[in-house]
Amino acid sequence: MATSSTSLAFTVRRCEPELVAPAKPTPLEQKLVSDIDDQASLRFQIPLIQFYRNNPSMKGKEPAKVIKEALAQALVFYYPFSGRLKEVANGKLMVDCTGEGVLFIEAKADVTLEQLSDALQPPFPCFDELLYDVPGSEGILNCPLLLIQVTQLKCGGFVLAIRLNHVFSDGPGVHQFMSAVAEMARGLVTPSIPPVWERHLLDAPDPPRVTCTHHEYDEVLESGIMNTPPLDNLVQRSFFFGPSEVSVLRRLIPPHLRQCTKFELLTACLWRCRTIAINPDPVEEVRMLCLNNMRSKFRPPLPSGYYGNAFVYPAAITTAKKLCQNPLGYAVELVKQAKAMATEEYVKSVASLMVIKSKRLNFPAVAGTYLISDVTKNGFPDVDFGWGKAVFGGPAKGIGAISFFISAKDKKGEVGTLVPICLPAPAMERFAMELDKMLNGQPTECKWGGRPNFISSAM
Question: Which residues are catalytic?
Answer without folding.
Answer: 166, 384
